[in-house]
Sequence to fold (722 residues):
Amino acid sequence: MDLLRFATAGSVDDGKSTLIGRLLLDSKSIFEDQLEAVEATSHSRGYDYTDLALLTDGLRSEREQGITIDVAYRYFATPARKFIIADTPGHIQYTRNMVTGASTADLGLVLVDARQGLTEQSRRHAVLLSLLRVPHLVLAINKMDLVDWSETVYERIHEEFTQFATKLAIPDLTVIPISALKGDNVVTRSENTPWYAGPTLMHHLEHVHVASDRDLVDTRFPVQYVVRPKSDDFHDYRGYAGQVAGGVLKPGDEVVVLPSGMTSTIEGIDVFDQEIDEAFPPMSVTIRLADDVDVSRGDMIARVKNAPQPSQDIDAMVCWMTTQPLRPRQKLAIKHTTRMGRALVKDIQYRLDVNTLHRDQDTRELGLNEIGRVQLRTTVPLLCDPYSKNRTTGSFILIDEATGVTVGAGMINTGA
Amino acid sequence: MTAPPTHADYQLSQLDQLEAESIHIFREAAAEFEKPALMCSGGKDSIVMLRLAEKAFYPAKLPFPVLQIDTGYDFPEVLAARDNWVKRLGARLVVASVEEAIKNGVVVDDGKTSRNRLQIGTLLDAVEKEGFTALFGGGRRDEEKARAKERVYSHRDDFGQWDPKNQRPELWGLYNGRLHGGEHMRVFPLSNWTELDIWHYIGREQIEIPSIYYAHERQVFKRDGMWFTESEFNPCKPGEEVVTKVVRFRTVGDLTLTGAVESDADTIDKIIDEIAVARVTERGATRGDDRFSEAAMEDRKKEGYF
Fold:
C-alpha cells in the first residue's frame, strides 16, 4: 500500500467540508464518538443538519467563531492507499495556509460550485497549486444536482478552466462532476451523469500515478547528521545520514561532496543494521564513503558530472507570511535543505497578483500573504536546483532572526 | 549505457515512507537542538519512537536521554517494557516523579486533580532542571482534533505553553528550530501516523510492547461505562463490583484513568483486525481524562501537556 498526500482548497460554501466529511465517512474513517460529538454540537447550536465542518475545526476558538484558522491534517485509508489531507481554509490567512498545505502535496483538489462556475478564488487556488508545483490537479465541479446534472455546465466550466490553465504549470488535470452532499461520483459512479466517462473522485485518488513525480536521475543527498559511534564494535565507523532528495545512489558510485568539491566513492549504504543495494527518494539512509574526506551537516553528496552549482545569489518566488512587510536591505536567517545561513534582500523585482497573474513592477515591498520575485544574497553558498526540477533542493524558508518565527517560503527560479 | 531506472522499481510502501519521514525528523532535531530528550511513557507510541530513534542513529547509541514522568500510578507491565528497551539501547533514563514533585511543592495534590494533570508541572520542572531544549513526543495528529493542527516542531514559550493560534508555518520538510532562552520545542516524529499504522509497524518490526495491550484476564470494575483495573490507588466506590474479565488496553497511562476494553485479541493480527472495525477512537474508548470537556486536550496542551 502506498501513500498519497493531497491538499484541498475551497470555502465552506463550495461544499468542501461536506466533501471531506463524505470521504472520511465512506471510507469509515470517522468514529462513532467523533460523529456523536459533532451531532451533539450541531444540535445544541440549533442547526437542522449535522455540520461536518465541525470535524475539522479542531481548536476551541475556531468552533466558537465558526471559522477555520489553520491547516488541519486528516487521515483516511482505503484498501488501495493511505491518504493524508492537508485541509486549508478558504478565507483567513488564505495564501499562507494554502502554500503550507500545498508544499507537501502530490495532488491538489479545487472545488467549484457548478452554479457559480470559476470564481476569483478558484483561479487563485489553481495559481498557488501551480506555483508550488503540485503535479496533479483535480477540479471537482460540485453541486451538479443543483444544475440538473447539465453536461453543458460541466463542459463550459471545464473549457474555461482549461483556457486559464494554459498560463500555469499543471502537468495533469482531471475534471470531475460531483455532488458531495448526495455522493454522486465521489465514491460511487453516478447514474445522473451518463455523459461523463471519467473516474469517480475516490477512484482517481486511489489510482493517480505519483511515483513518477520523483526525480530519479539527478542524485541529491543533503547530509543531515554524521553518525560516529565511537564504540569498540564500530570503532572506525563514519556514516553520513540523510534523506535522499533525488536520484538513485548505489555502492561504487563516484560522488562529489559540495561545497568542498572533494570526490570519493560510495563504499556502502546502510539502513539500520542492513546494507542495501540502492537508495532513492524519499528513503532515509546512511552513506559510507571510501575515502576519509571532510563531510559535515549542510553538505551535499551528488554525482561528479551532475551536481548543483553552489550559489550565493538566489532568485526566487517568495511567499511572505507575516504582517511586517518584506523590504530590500532586510536581513533574515535562511534554511535550505540541512543548511542554515543568513540572507540579505537585494531586490524585490515584482509582486505577483495571484488572481490575475499580473506582475506589479512598481512594488517596493511584500505584505502578508503576498507573493513576489525576490533577489537574495546569502552568507553561505546554497547547493540548490530550480524548484521546478526538485521541490526539496529548490525550496527554502526565511526566519526572522529576532522573533525566531518563519516569515517566508521561497521557491528558487530557473537560471538563478 | 544502461537503461534509465523505471519508477515502478522505486516505490516505497506507506509504512516505509512514514518511517523515512520520522527518521528524518529525529536526525534533524538531534542535529539542531543542544539538549533534546525523548519522552517515553512506555506506551506503544513512545516505544515505536524508541525503535525509530534506534534506526536513525545506528550503529551509534541514542544521542539523547529518555525522559519518563513517573505518575506513581503506572502499570508495572509498562515500566517493565520501558526498562527492557532502555537497557537494550544502552540509553540514559531520566525519571521525573510526580510523588517527588508533590513532596517538593512543585505541584499540589489537592485530591481532586488527576495524576495526568499533575504530570504537566512535573514535566515542566524537569525540563527546567535538566535544561532540555527539545522533547520528542509520541503525539499523532489522528488522535484528537486539537492535535490535527499541531506542527511537527511545536514551539513552547518560557512558561511551557502552546499558543495554537500563533503557530509557525511549517513547509516542505524544513523545520524551524529557533528558540529563545527558556523556551523549548516539542517534536512529534509520529505526526502523520495513524493508530493502525502504529500497529502494522509493531507487527512488521516485531516490537516488544507492554503485555497489557494484549488480551488477558484482569480484576476489573465498571465506572462511567469503562472497565478499570482494581488497585490500591483506585479503590472501588460503593456499588462498584470487582469481576474477572478478559480485557486489553488500547492506550496506557495513569491506571486510575485508563480504561480497558473487553477483547480476546491476544496477537498483533487480532488487534489489527479489531481496530480496523473499531467504531470508537482509542481515546474516546479508554481515556477518562479526555471526556471531561470537548476541549480537554486543547486546554491541557496549552498548559504544557505532551
Observations:
- Chain B has a mean pLDDT of 86.
